[in-house]
Amino acid sequence: MKAAPFALCTPGSIDEAVADLSEHGDDSRVLAGGQSLLPVMAMRRHSPAVLVDLRRLVALDHITVADAHVAIGAMTRQRTVERNESVAGSVRLLALAVPLIAHVTVRNQGTIGGSIAHADPSAELPTVALATHATMVVRGPTGQREIAAADFFLGMHTTAMGADELLTEIRFPLDAPGCGWAFEEVSRRRGDVAIVAVAAMVRLGGDGQVAEARIAMSSVAPTPIRASGAEALLAGHPPSAELFAAAAAEAVLTIDPPSDLNGTSAYRRHLAAVLVRRALATAADRAGR
Amino acid sequence: MTESSNRVEVRVRVNGRDRAAVVDARRTLVELLREDLALTGTHVGCEHGVCGSCTVLVDGASARACLTLAARVDGCAVTTIEGLAGDAGSTMSVLQQSCLERHSFQCGFCTPGILIVATELLAENPDPSEAEVREAIAGNLCRCTGYDSIVAGVLHAASVARGGRS
Q1: CATH class held by domain B87-161
Q2: Residue of B nearest to A22 (CA)
């Protein structure tokens, strides 16, 4: 199918883009890379009257390394992030997850900010943002504000941003010393939507015990979610297969995954437990090196 | 605030030739190519970014032309399947000739998209492994071949381009 008719506006600055969103409000959508928005418009699940096209906002296409984080402009292409050495060296989880997003052709056009603002619970980047404690930098009519990932994803395709706000930058904290990351995902075919994906981090202390663990799961709830019970269970113990199996069992205790064509709720629960166990083992192994 | 419009002017270089059109804002690149510029070599399958048959190069990077607004390519250079062949279509590219020799394709519907992503792959990686070829074409559906003949054709092209004839 084809998208319903709409008007296009192409602001030349962030302020102009915010003014456009303020003017058109809920009748408008932001066009970043278009790889998620244009399919849902073609299927007529969205028929906005106005698209605010960000293609002229070259200031939103950057990767900047700061003292404590790597800042990535919202319009930076996923393929650019995939090939960036600072990301590969300092935000390991992002480097692991981005190559799993769809296919090269989609990553050539798809943006970091577009995927995070789209807030699809099965997408890789919202899960990465949650696991890495990323900060979303948002501009609105009254200025700029920062939203922690834990407060950003409110529901399926729903974020803490207002209709007149624009995601401009995502700040990913630099990996802490002694930590290892892993990203595990199962999809029907290479590049298909993840039935379940799990991001995990294990940081080992000087005593060889788990000082900190993080687990974030996609596709098991309306937003990516942390398994805080399992994280607490890991802290203070030496890493072992038994410990990771116990954490995996704990991680799926409280989830109620959806059923759809790609998998039943029970299958997703099973996958989540398996992937949490694998991700923790891989992350701990990488932390120990 | 910026002016919003239902119609947009697009100036784009397609296969080395400057073209211009005034189209609806919702016009996609694949519609621009096929219906406004009469370049029907690019196929349109699913119209929502799943099948890969509409893939073209935009400034050298592959893009799904059904997920690209025509307005987005204003000022860009687009290469379609018609642009892969040399001398106005009279000679095939090494990739096209190699795929012909390996009987890569059957019905031809997926052919333009797959040749475009394979062209992108070989430009970046002249000596790909079989796994890298399979990864590169993973976003393009072929319902005829089971892909083995396509992979063979792309690997043959890489070999020929590097100077071998294996």
Answers
A1: mainly alpha
A2: B1
